[in-house]
Amino acid sequence: MAHAVNYSQSWLTRPFTERSTLTFLGVLLGAVALVTFLNLAMPQDSALHVSTYTVTLMGKYLCYALLAVAVDLVWGYLGILSLGHGAFFALGGYAMGMYLMRQIGDRGVYGNPDLPDFMVFLNWQELPWYWSGFDMAWFAFIMVLLAPGILAFVFGYLAFRSRVTGVYLSIITQALTFALMLAFFRNEMGFGGNNGLTDFMDILGFDLRTDGARLGLFIASGIALALGYIICRAIVGSKLGRVSVACRDAEARTRFIGYRVERVQLFVFVVSAMLAGVAGALYVPQVGIINPSEFSPLFSIEVVVWVALGGRATLYGAVIGALIVNYAKTVFTGVMPDAWLFALGALFVLVTVFLPKGIAGLFANLGKKKKADSPASGGTEQEATA
What we know:
- The chain has 386 residues and is an all-alpha fold.
- It has one domain.
- 71% of the residues lie in helices and 2% in strands.
- The protein contains 16 helices and 4 strands.
- Helix 3 (52-76) runs antiparallel to helix 11 and helix 6 packs antiparallel against helix 11.
- GO terms for molecular function: branched-chain amino acid transmembrane transporter activity.
């Protein structure tokens, strides 16, 4: 029993003993603190001042980074190329959007205290049953986890139990998100149809239009990314993580020696979906809208490109890839918006050909080369030879 307790403690605390994890957390939280300081302390006419617009943009990038970490967990360590994680991201976003819509109350265009404006416009007479409870923050936050988690559990149970793998599983995940996109486009679903949910006003009693609320959401996004990273590192560093890698590299052999592969796949897949839901929930109040376009298969494919660029099976590489690609998208679409998809495709091809292990792999190779060329390592090799 004592051995089990000690193992549990080491599983929970292991990420805090890893140098790479501590470095990542230090850089992330330090950057969040620096941006916060420059936004609050520097005068607006100062060159060092970070505007609220930039803070909101960075907060959106951090949400994307958390989504990329979630995808890397299943793709990098479990070997499941999910082309449907945009669906989990969108479900978390819709759960948050429903809460934000209920907070508007009678301040909407039509002044109805019970129904959102789009329902009044469509002549709905009462609130659908599945909107019940979303006027309470705690219920909405639970649904942010449960909505994508339950979908991932049902989908994963059926897929993994049937031993669907490889490209077939990827196609099914893409079909899932496409089907959800078509469903959410329909007005009778009760989620705003093509326009989605928008015109949010408050979150937890704070006015979303204020600079303080924007900064708070940015900080919350940074903390969520840090916690998500720690959770993923804890999973990867545990026995479960080692079995996940075994499933990725030799699923049949892992199954042969007695492991319930489908259970491992299901657990990791559900955790990944929940992290994606949290990312979507933090994304929505910062951008001010959630609509069916977030279910687009193209968006899920973009996330895969982020992870491929940063480097699979590293977690921090997924963060790097998400930040670089989305910053490039912001700049590129401002200059040549119609050419962005071509640039993204070209980037993916270049990374696949010249950086198969991504930016993180490039850093790792440079580190190994530097270590091999150092006098200390050279001396050690000579002594060993002698």
